[in-house]
Design a protein that fits this description.
single chain; eight-stranded mixed β-sheet; UDP-N-acetylmuramoyl-L-alanine:D-glutamate ligase; 21% strand; alpha/beta; Ribokinase-like; four-stranded mixed β-sheet; 16 strands; 14 helices; disordered C terminus
């Protein structure tokens, strides 16, 4: 895989820069339909900033680049994300557009009862462009993490994402989480989402995509079919839900792929939110530490398990030594792991983490 490089366009280089829209999230005070919930608690949400926050909590230097309104919600986002230790100096404030917000129900997103109400049309983030963002700061990471949500927000956001995924000498390693959101593209009017996302993914060095979204967006069935459609990235990770994840790593010289599959963990799920972002963050953390691909996948699963065992979108990742011990288990012990709420605080050792259902 291409070495994780350092750019010279900005003086303070960080491990990861994440660019994308963050929104204020309103979480229900009790289960039920949005029409019936009497009160909500405020939190933050955003695929890219989630990755930056979790990586910062794990000790990596991170920067979030985005655009928020010159309003109280924008203040809250900048303060809350900065409180994780994320550098927010590349965030731009827009006096003419609001910060996006959304409301969601407490139910599992996989059920028909789940509701999400977005209020993001015309948001400050939709005005991100090549001209309104600090490209030097955005390119000042060892890794630049992007997602397919940003290009759906506006034609300017699409142009910005195309600029950042263009293959040029000296660019940082570009990580791209496909994050296909059909609803956003349905109202976009500046391109056919599946085609745009496939084109952008081809420009990245590292791509994350779920096999379910690859099937829905591109009609592809199975990791091998996804790799055939995306031969350009040096590392492609296909997430297969409860089955695990498969990585295709093009080795230097031969041009052939090394294919690595790691089964998912057994997890006592509290809330099925935030796992995809946590998986990407765990994989990137292990990538920054130059771990083998199998361990990168295992760290992805472990960080996803941290998110799955708490009610909020963001969860503190396991301590580095704790995660390293679990990632180093043999295949039999890995297959016997069962992780539930509070497991990230259990740092007694790998053997005591091995539990049967």
């Amino acid at each position: 895989m291409t070495a994780i490089g350092r750019t010279s366009t900005a003086p303070d280089v960080v491990d990861v820069v994440a660019l994308g829209e963050s929104m204020v999230t309103f979480l229900p005070s009790r289960p039920g339909r949005l029409a019936d919930v009497p009160a909500f608690e405020r939190a933050i949400g955003g695929a890219e900033s989630n990755v930056a926050c979790v990586l910062a909590a794990a000790g990596h230097s991170t920067r979030w680049a985005g655009r928020v309104g010159a309003d109280g919600f924008g203040d809250h986002l900048v303060d809350a994300i900065g409180a994780y230790g994320v550098d927010v100096r590349a965030v731009r404030r827009d006096p003419a557009r609001p910060t996006g917000i959304y409301f969601r129900t407490a139910g599992d997103r996989a059920t028909d009862a789940h509701e999400v109400a977005y209020y993001r049309a015309g948001s400050a983030a939709s005005a991100m462009s090549v001209d309104t963002m600090d490209l030097a700061a955005i390119r000042s990471g060892r890794v630049l993490h992007l997602s397919g949500i940003t290009p759906a927000l506006s034609a300017d956001c699409l142009d910005l994402t195309r600029e950042l995924t263009a293959r040029r000498p000296g660019r940082p390693l570009v990580s791209f989480d496909v994050n296909h959101r059909p609803g956003l593209w349905r109202d976009a009017g500046h391109g056919h989402g599946p085609e745009v996302l496939l084109d952008l993914a081809r420009g990245a060095d590292l791509v994350f995509v779920g096999d379910d979204e690859a099937r829905d967006a591109w009609g592809l069935g199975g990791p091998e079919a996804v790799r055939a459609a995306l031969p350009e990235p040096e590392l492609l990770v296909v997430k297969q839900g409860a089955s695990g994840a498969t990585a295709f790593h093009r080795t230097t010289g031969s041009g052939a792929d090394e294919v690595t599959s790691v089964p998912a963990l057994t997890v006592d799920v509290v809330a099925a939110v935030g796992a995809g972002d946590a998986f990407a963050a765990g994989f990137l953390s292990a990538t920054l530490r130059e771990k083998p691909v199998r361990e990168r996948l295992r760290h992805g699963h472990l960080w996803a398990a941290a998110a799955l065992t708490v009610p909020a979108d963001l969860a503190a990742p396991p301590a580095r030594g704790h995660a390293d011990r679990l990632a180093a288990l043999d295949d039999t012990a890995w297959g016997r792991l069962r992780l539930g709420p509070g497991w990230t605080q259990d740092v007694r050792g790998a053997d005591e983490e091995v539990r049967t259902p």
